Amino acid sequence: MSTYRILFLGDIVGKPGRKAVKEGLPSLQDSLQPLFTIVNGENSAGGVGITPDIAEELFQQHVDAITLGNHAYNKRDIYSYLDLNKPIVRPENVPESCPGRGHTSVTKDGIELMVINICGRVFLDGYDDPFACIDRVLAQARTPHILLDFHAEATSEKIAMGYYLEGRVTAVLGTHTHVTTADETILEGGTAYITDVGMCGPVNSVLGMDRTIILERFRTTLPARFEVANESGVISAVVIDVRKDTGRAESIERVRFSTAGTL
Fold it and tell me: Which SS3 state, helix, strand or coil, does residue 113 take?
């Protein structure tokens, strides 16, 4: 075969998201036969952050790499874990003194896939210029097979990054806003792009959070502690077909999966 597949799962939100992934990922891997499975795990621990135990649980489910985002450091016990040289990446554009690293490489069947995590800075504070950051990382790349998880709030910033990297990377996949967009495409030069992959988490919620609490917050403006909705979850993902020789994408498709089957 001249191509291989990447399966990328959007932000895993809390216990419902983890349960959906545990129950549904084996079926997706069996049916789609991806060479690489990558997940965003930055909301997997109670809706904010990730713990070492959760990361290990994901790796045991044949996940090849984990990306994070603006909640990368919400759980302090993850700090030392991020320095263990495992395939888990926090945003590249944080200070170098922060635990962990912003890119990693995983290799299977002779294909080396570089996985990068970068945060946007529109409506997100404390991050270095993502465009200059990606240029620095790509200058070090040893492979044409490159996936960027661009964890950003603003749609415009994500789209701009897609065009900035068209023909330079395999895929630019947006995360963070938890709502799947319908703009998946192959940009010029063979770069797969989507503004947001969506979330793996409870459907009957507001971005994974308990809708009753969120509605009360909107109606009263009073502070409230957000909690992950206690509802069944689904998997939101994309599957990308990639040329082995060039690392350029040939197709990208949205996948939405529940334990009852593909939706």
Answer: strand
Q: What is the mean pLDDT of residues 202-220?
A: 85
Tens-place pLDDT, residues 114-171: 999 999 999 999 999 999 999 999 999 999 999 999 999 999 999 999 999 999 999 9
- How many CA atoms lie within 13 Å of 117's alpha carbon, on the beta-carbon side? 29
SS3 15: helix
CA distance 205 to 117: 26
Domain ranges of the chain: 3-262
> Tens digits of per-residue pLDDT, 73-120?
999 999 999 999 999 999 999 999 999 999 999 999 999 999 999 999
Choose, from 62, 71, 151, 176, the residue flagged as catalytic: 71
Residue with tokens 């994408």, as numbered in its chain: 249
Which amino acid is present at 122?
V
CATH architecture assigned to 3-262: 4-Layer Sandwich (3.60)
- Report residue 11 CA to chain centroid gap: 6
CA distances 166 to 102, 121, 155, 215, Å, are: 20, 20, 17, 39
Contact of 134 with 116, CB cutoff 8 Å: yes
Active site residue 178: no
The tally of CA atoms less than 13 A away on the side-chain side of residue 217 is 12
What element of type H or E holds 250? strand 249-258
Model-level pTM? 0.95
